[in-house]
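Q: what sequence does this backbone want?
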């Protein structure tokens, strides 16, 4: 067992060549997968400093505070890292919805197009 496996010392995240790792946001109480986004070293640092989820927007090429414009923040209870240290799991308390489409989760439809998620806000009223 290594020191990291024993809980002694922080894990060094492998941000790879592009400086980003995927992060899954999961509801702390229900276990529901809410979204997937990317995290830079700065986003991870801000998440750990503030206790609220920060990501890196690849489309806008900037740091992104989840809920910064909508108010639908994610309070991060725990940050977990996978066995290869190249993927993160944010265990969160989601305020309202995680998806910009108004759904609680970004995973609100099946591959066949069936709607399976709950819409919790009107994005036209928020954005």
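A:
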């Amino acid at each position: 067992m290594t020191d990291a496996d024993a809980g002694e010392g922080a894990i060094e995240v492998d941000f790879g060549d592009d400086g980003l790792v995927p992060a899954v946001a999961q509801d702390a109480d229900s276990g529901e997968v809410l979204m997937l986004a990317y995290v830079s070293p700065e986003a991870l640092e801000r998440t750990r400093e503030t206790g609220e989820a920060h990501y890196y927007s690849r489309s806008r090429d900037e740091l992104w505070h989840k809920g910064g414009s909508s108010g639908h923040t994610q309070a991060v209870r725990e940050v977990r890292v996978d066995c290869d240290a190249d993927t993160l799991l944010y265990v969160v308390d989601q305020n309202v919805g995680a998806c910009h489409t108004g759904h609680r989760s970004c995973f609100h439809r099946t591959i066949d197009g069936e709607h399976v998620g709950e819409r919790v806000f009107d994005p036209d009223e928020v954005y």
